[in-house]
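Example (one chain per record):
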Amino acid sequence: MLKLGVGKTLKISKWVKKDATVTYISSKAPVSCRMDQKLGEVISILSKQHRRLPVLNKEGHVRGVISSTDVLRMLSGKGKKKHRAKKHEDVKVKSVMSSHVMHIDKNMKLSDVMDFFKKHRKGAYPVTYRKGLVGVVSEWDIVRQIRGKTGVKVSDVMVRRPMVAQDHHSVADVAGMLSVGGFRRLPVVKNGILVGIVTSRDLLTFLNGKGLLGKIDQQKQPVTEIMKKDVMTVRPDADIHAAAQTMVSKEVGGLPVVEDHQLIGIITERDIVDVVEF
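Predicted structure:
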C-alpha cells in the first residue's frame, strides 16, 4: 500500500464551530455489550448493525471494545488468548475484546477530538462521563460534517496500490488477510478490474448465517460468493465532498477509486480524517 502525502488540508470550521464539544457529533444512544456476554449474541449484532461495540463491566464502566476484526482474528486462530469454551458462540466477550481502550470525555472540544483521532488512529472511541458510557464518536461522525466542496481531490489523499483480494482467493484466505493485516475491507479484483468488495462484516454474516463460525479455515469457496458485487466507487478527480456524501448516504467506510475501469486506489474515512483541520 502506498500513500503520498501532499500537504493538503480540509478546513471544517465553515460547517462546525471550533468550540463545540464531541457530543455535537457523537451518537447519543450507543449500543453496547457486557464483558460476560456470550460471543454468539454479540456476533449477531456485529454482523447486522454495528462495526464495533463498547464493552461494559457490571458497574456500567467501559472496559474495552469488540469489533468484527477482533472476532475474525479469534476465529482464524490469530488471537492472543486461548479459549476453553467448546463452541465459539459460548466464548465470553472479555476474552476477545480489545482492552485498554482510550475514552473521550464528553466535554472535549472538537478541535482536540480531531487531534485525538490523528494521534491514536482508531476508528471510534467511547464517549464517557464519570466513567459511564454516554456515546460513541467515530471517523464516520467526522466525515459526515463535510457539507460542501473542499478543493481537495480524492487523488490527494487516497491510498494508492491498496491491498486487494483476487477473485480466486478463498473465503479462508480473505479472513486471514483481514485478521492479520488489520484491514476493514478489501477490494476484489480480476486482472486489475474491480469486481467486488468484502468486509469483515460480510465474512461474519456469512459464517454466522451458515453455522460455520468454528470452521473458517475450511471455507475454500471463492470470495466472489460472499463479496458485494454492486460496489460504490469514486473517481480520483472528484472532490472529497463527493466521496464523503457517498460514504454517509450508503453507510460505508471506504470507496475504491476507479479510472478507466481500473482500480487505482481506495479512500477511507481515516484518509479523510487525516486531512481535516479547523
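Caption: The radius of gyration is 19 Å.
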